[in-house]
Amino acid sequence: MNKTIIILICYIIMAAIVPSLLIINKRTLKAMGDCLLKLPRKSAIGVIIIDVIAILLPLLLFFRDYKNMNFLFTSCSIIAFFIMTKDGFNKKNYGVYQKGLIAPSSVFFYEDILGFPVFELPLEEQAHYAKNTLIVVTKKASRLEIIFSSDEECRAVVEKLKEIGVISV
What is d(CA 104, CA 41) in angstroms, rounded to the nearest whole number? Predict the structure, then answer.
């Protein structure tokens, strides 16, 4: 396939990702309900840098032909753009909501949670886990490790989840 066509398709897909994620984000926020605990917003500089790199990456195909790898090259670019753009949209909404949690790299509803395995362990064993990490077992993603920027942030989320009855320990 012609390199120009591959690059054009790549940019069309990237252009479609942004409005799609805006719609998904808006619907998710509406379904989550009111924010009960707002988490600090993280810097978006990393997201912007990786998005710019993902956008520029397909242009390398004009300077060098990767033969059978052209499709793979642009696919990786699209995936990186999707992941970072999704994370960028979620950054401003980090928090504990009435029906779900939006945290770094994780968005899920409480109805999908199967448990919090660390809280089921004896206190001595709980001490072996990082204090800034919340481990959640969900129906869709199996086991998620949500890493917060500080111990206090994680503790505040856990306390709010206990307060609203999501964690029953």
Answer: 10
Measured distance CA(88)–CA(45) in Å, rounded: 9
Which of 127, 135, 128 has its CA nearest to residue 154?
135
* Section 21-50 average pLDDT: 90
> Which pTM does this prediction carry?
0.81
Nearest residue to 163 via CA among 33, 36, 29: 36
Identify the CA nearest to 106 among candidates 150, 140, 152, 55: 140
CA nearest to 13, candidates 54, 60, 61:
54
Residue 121: is its pLDDT beyond 90?
A: no
Contact assessment for residue 37 and residue 95, using Cβ atoms and an 8 Å cutoff:
yes
- Per-residue model confidence as pLDDT tens digits over 6-17: 899 999 999 999
Amino acid code (one letter) for 41: R
